[in-house]
């Protein structure tokens, strides 16, 4: 697990962060919702209304029949995953819970971030556990130290579980290094 801390340079005009070190410099895209360009998958799909991609469509609508939420079959250890297409330093994750039913279904879900697909990505480092998100509410989880990862999973341990997510926003940045010198 890698972590980075930015320097004082932060240009809103260029949307970049600058990270100095003793030998090199690197430039990073500012933290944005990188899940929007990702590819989503889940352990199963209960119905075509609840496909995995609905959680990264940019729509926080918490009503399942409005086609913006995911839904797995009843199963043991259901999971949902977004492939960000390349590693990002993830800074925080916002999850929107379903409003029209069953808010408690997310209780105990784990948020994991990393670069491994072992156990479908569910063995990646744990960055947060969802104790409870009220019905129809979006809750943000800060990722301490900006964890690097290509995959973000929501994993619900236990038997006889449904996993439903109405939006998953993953905020992070991607770095390019080394640069020949400090920014202008």
TrEMBL record:
Annotated compartments: Secreted
Chief location: secreted
GO CC terms in record: extracellular region
Domain annotation Fucolectin tachylectin-4 pentraxin-1: ranges: 31-180
Pfam families: F5_F8_type_C_2 (PF22633)
Alphabetical keyword list: Calcium, Disulfide bond, Lectin, Metal-binding, Secreted
GO molecular function: fucose binding; metal ion binding
GO biological process: regulation of cellular defense response; regulation of complement activation, lectin pathway
InterPro entries, sorted: BG_Antigen-Binding_Lectin (IPR051941), FTP1 (IPR006585), Galactose-bd-like_sf (IPR008979)
Record PANTHER family: FTP DOMAIN-CONTAINING PROTEIN, SI:CH211-215K15.4
Function: Acts as a defensive agent. Recognizes blood group fucosylated oligosaccharides including A, B, H and Lewis B-type antigens. Does not recognize Lewis A antigen and has low affinity for monovalent haptens.
Quaternary structure annotation from Swiss-Prot or TrEMBL: Homotrimer.
Protein family: Belongs to the fucolectin family.
Name this polypeptide is given: Fucolectin tachylectin-4 pentraxin-1 domain-containing protein
Organism the protein comes from: Periophthalmus magnuspinnatus
Highest classification ranks of the organism: Eukaryota, Metazoa, Chordata, Craniata, Vertebrata
């Amino acid at each position: 697990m890698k972590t980075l801390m930015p320097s004082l340079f932060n240009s809103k005009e260029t949307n970049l962060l600058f990270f100095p070190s003793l030998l090199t410099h690197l430039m990073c895209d500012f933290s944005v919702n990188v899940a929007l360009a990702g590819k989503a998958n889940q352990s199963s799909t209960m119905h075509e209304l609840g496909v995995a991609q609905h959680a990264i469509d940019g729509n926080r609508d918490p009503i399942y029949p409005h086609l913006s939420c995911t839904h797995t079959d009843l199963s043991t250890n259901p999971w949902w995953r977004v492939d960000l297409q390349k590693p990002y330093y993830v800074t925080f994750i916002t999850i929107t819970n379903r409003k029209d039913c069953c808010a408690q279904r997310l209780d105990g879900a784990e948020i994991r971030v990393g670069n491994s697909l072992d156990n479908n990505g569910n063995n990646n480092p744990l960055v947060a556990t969802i104790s409870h998100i009220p019905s129809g509410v979006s809750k943000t989880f800060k990722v301490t130290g900006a964890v690097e990862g290509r995959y973000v999973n929501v994993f619900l341990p236990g038997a006889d579980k449904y996993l439903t997510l109405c939006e998953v926003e993953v905020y992070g940045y991607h770095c390019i290094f080394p640069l020949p010198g400090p920014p202008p």
